[in-house]
Write a structure and sequence with these properties.
single chain; 6-stranded mixed beta sheet; Purple Acid Phosphatase, chain A, domain 2; binds fe (ii) ion; 6 helices
Length: 330
């Protein structure tokens, strides 16, 4: 039996989104946002730009600062206030270059998204951009990253795998964020995290929880270029095939995708969210995020997904599509 003792993390702040309980009994709403790249590099100092960060800074200067827009992030917060999800999952790439000043900026912004009780964050490759292994670099985000459920497994890569339980929902966070050589943006989960994932999926599965696995890099081949891939996607898929899960959420590709991972009891939906802050004239990408409604159906689950996309004409997010997703059977 997994120990589900939850430590309450207190964070007092003004202007916090305060998600309410779902209006539908026995259902849970989960928003998934990704790749906000919300930080500014305007005041960066050149000595901070060693190695790979020089290329990253030039990319930001010429392109990224133009496509990840503050007004869209403000609209996103407004839309989330209207939609009131029970919880918000954030799958990484909050920063551009993973600099300490960016960690601080994110730390100061996160309370506007919600309290740690209502928001779970994992890192992306831009949050572990260069230098040493990522480890505890983002420790100022700790209340949003770390498990608040007691675990009996060894943790690696800082806080991961993490486990947070909200009602009947188990949010399992992984870190695929690793510093890489210039021109590479690959990710790796690693054997120790995968072993922990195996245990967490087994225990939360025994509890009958709806298991959501969060990982930044797409864990299904073919969704992204080789130089940006998850290097151990096959090992990840093997763990999920063995233990099962109900939903996998990822980011990184900046495009909306729905794919599957096969298990003996059916396919697990794997959903990639695009950037929730992007309006990109070069690629045509426009900000979106997803809201899932999770409800019981006998011993199984039902899952519907609503896409909220930014409308440039209306200057706000609007609901654009709804889809029912087939889940593995219990
Ligand atoms: Fe990204
Ligand atoms: Fe990424």
């Amino acid at each position: 039996m997994v120990n589900v003792k939850i430590e309450k993390v207190s964070l007092t702040t003004e202007n916090v989104l305060r998600p309410t309980q779902s209006t539908q009994p026995d259902s849970f709403s989960l928003a998934h946002i990704s790749d906000l790249h919300l930080t500014s590099l305007d005041n960066i100092k050149i000595p901070q730009l060693l190695s790979k960060r020089i290329l990253g800074y030039l990319s930001w200067l010429h392109k990224r600062r133009l496509v990840h827009r503050r007004e869209i992030i403000a609209s996103l917060l407004e839309d989330l206030r209207d939609t009131h999800p029970d919880h918000i999952a954030v799958t990484g790439d909050m920063t551009h270059l993973g600099l300490p000043m960016e960690y601080t900026e994110v730390e100061q912004w996160l309370p506007s998204l919600g309290t740690p009780e209502h928001v779970t964050v994992i890192p992306g490759n831009h949050d572990a951009y260069a230098g040493k292994a990522w480890g505890n670099s983002c420790s100022s985000w700790r209340p949003y990253l770390d498990s608040d459920t007691k675990l009996d497994i060894p943790k690696t890569a800082g806080f991961f795998p993490s486990l947070r339980i909200r009602g009947q929902i188990a949010l399992i966070g992984l870190s695929s964020a690793r510093p890489t050589l210039p021109l590479l943006a690959t990710g790796t989960i690693g054997q120790k995290q995968l072993s922990g994932l195996d245990i967490l999926l087994e225990k939360t599965g025994e509890e009958g929880l709806f298991r959501v696995v969060m990982v930044h890099h797409p864990p299904v081949p073919g969704l992204i270029k080789w130089r940006k891939r998850l290097t151990d996607d096959k090992m990840f898929a093997a763990v999920l095939a063995r233990q099962g899960a109900e939903l996998v959420l990822h980011g990184h590709a900046h495009t909306a995708t729905i794919s599957k991972l096969q298990t003996p009891t059916g396919s697990i939906p794997v959903v990639g969210a695009p950037s929730a802050s992007e309006l990109n004239p070069w690629t045509g990408n426009c900000a979106k995020y997803n809201i899932y409604r999770i409800s019981r159906s006998g011993k199984n689950w039902e899952l519907t997904m609503t896409v909220h996309g930014y409308s440039e004409d209306q200057g706000r997010f609007v609901s654009t599509a709804e889809k029912s997703l087939r889940l593995p059977q219990r």
